[in-house]
Design a protein that fits this description.
Blueprint (H helix, E strand, L loop, with lengths): L11 H4 L6 E10 L3 H10 L4 E6 L8 E8 L2 E8 L4 H10 L2 E9 L2 H10 L4 E10 L2 E9 L5 E6 L12 E2 L11 E10 L5 H10 L4 E6 L10 E8 L6 E8 L6 H9 L3 E9 L2 H10 L15 H5 L6 H7 L2 E5 L2 E7 L10 E8 L9 H15 L3
Parallel strand pairs: 1-4, 5-8, 10-13, 14-17
Antiparallel strand pairs: 1-5, 2-3, 2-9, 3-4, 6-7, 7-8, 10-14, 11-12, 12-13, 15-16, 16-17
């Protein structure tokens, strides 16, 4: 059964046990075919800044990683330095994509014990990494597909990123695009797997369900999907989980799973305080966005009510608008940022709204279907 976010009681966050607890997203690690070129892309197109490096020069003989940051967002871009091994296999099967969603905690050992005691499958027992800047403690568990959650305890570390890395300070730097933090991250899972992973986040990590959408909410003439949004107790971590629903043609979730060869992170939503300025800069630097028809704007203000922004720049850039009882939001979605139609980004500016743009779903998914049709995968 579907419910809107505005029907969700304020005590939803109290329902999350938050026994870890989670302070926020520490970093997101992507396995990529060429980390150096990927780092340049995120710097030049997205305005990320260089932070840290691990590779041959630091004594890492099999793996190279570049770390870039913008606001509170950190991306770790990792490639293998030799044939064979798990990173090569991951890239061969999935293409470039998110491997690790790392979560900032006060106590990585406690987080590992709490989650594994509740049924989480360990991927890394608590491990201490130290150098002259202090100590970082890491631990990890498996989640959907081959995605991992790594718990990061860094209160006793003052270096650029973590032991094994050195500060990366290249001559080239680009201007920030105004991205602040990760608002939410969406996982795509297979048929009838959504509730399994909803239960995982509730039982293993103490999350509560914030909102759900069924195929009546998220459907077009051709495709449909279902989604449930899980949140931790302080609301800093939100993980929508999507699964396909029956439709006349192949949905975006099915397309993702076909090309990613399994479940994985579908998109990363990043927040800004000025979506018009952010999108203008990103577009000027080569980032491509989905576009809804101009007819969307004929009655959008009748649907969402008054907003602070001038409608014309929003129409020009294709930015979508939606409202709930708490306020409104502005959002826009990129086209896939990889060769396979898998990972993409969402730019979001919240003006009080706590929801996820339910009123835009139909227009958005029709835009995605037009892209699918151009790829021959609809």
């Amino acid at each position: 059964m579907s419910q809107s976010l505005t029907q969700t009681p304020p005590k939803i966050f109290e329902q999350a046990e938050d026994f870890l607890p989670l302070n926020g997203t520490d970093y997101v690690e992507l396995y990529v075919g060429n980390a150096k070129q990927a780092a340049h892309y995120y710097m030049s197109a997205w305005g990320f800044q260089p932070l840290a490096y691990k590779g041959l020069e630091t004594g890492s003989k099999d793996v190279v990683s570049y770390v870039v940051e913008q606001g509170k967002i950190r991306l770790v871009l990792t490639s293998p330095l030799a044939p064979g091994g798990p990173i090569n296999r991951h890239i061969e099967q999935h293409g470039d994509g998110v491997k690790v969603v790392a979560l900032w905690v006060d106590d990585a050992e406690k987080s590992w014990k709490e989650t594994t005691a509740r049924g989480g499958v360990s991927s890394m027992e608590p491990t201490r990494l130290s150098d002259e800047h202090g100590t970082v403690v890491l631990s990890g568990i498996h989640t959907y597909g081959e995605t991992l959650h790594v718990f990061v305890e860094r209160s006793n570390y003052a270096g650029a990123f973590m032991p094994g890395y050195r500060k990366w300070d290249p001559e080239y730097r680009s201007d920030s695009a105004g991205l602040l933090y990760i608002d939410h991250m969406v996982g795509n899972v297979g048929w009838n797997e959504m509730n399994t992973w909803v239960e995982f986040y509730a039982k293993v990590m103490g999350f509560a369900q914030l909102v759900s959408f069924d195929d009546k909410d998220i459907s077009t003439e051709y495709t449909a999907l279902m989604s449930k949004v899980m949140t931790n107790g302080n609301g800093r971590i939100k993980f929508p989980i999507n699964e396909p629903a029956t439709g006349r043609k192949k949905s975006q979730i099915e397309e993702y799973i076909d090309f990613y060869q399994g479940a994985g992170v579908q998109h990363i939503a990043v927040a800004t305080n000025d979506i018009v300025a952010t999108v203008r800069r990103l577009k000027s630097q080569g980032v491509e966005f989905l576009r809804v028809p101009n007819t969307y704007y004929l009655d959008v203000l009748d649907r969402v009510g008054p907003i602070d922004e001038d409608l014309e720049p929003l129409r020009e850039l294709g930015i979508l608008i939606d409202r709930d009882d708490e306020g409104y939001l502005l959002q826009l979605f990129t086209k896939p940022v990889l060769d396979r139609p898998t990972l993409f980004f969402e730019i979001i500016q919240r003006k009080g709204a706590k929801s996820f743009g339910k009123g835009n779903f139909k227009a958005l998914f029709e835009a995605i279907e037009r892209e699918q049709e151009s790829r021959g995968t609809l």
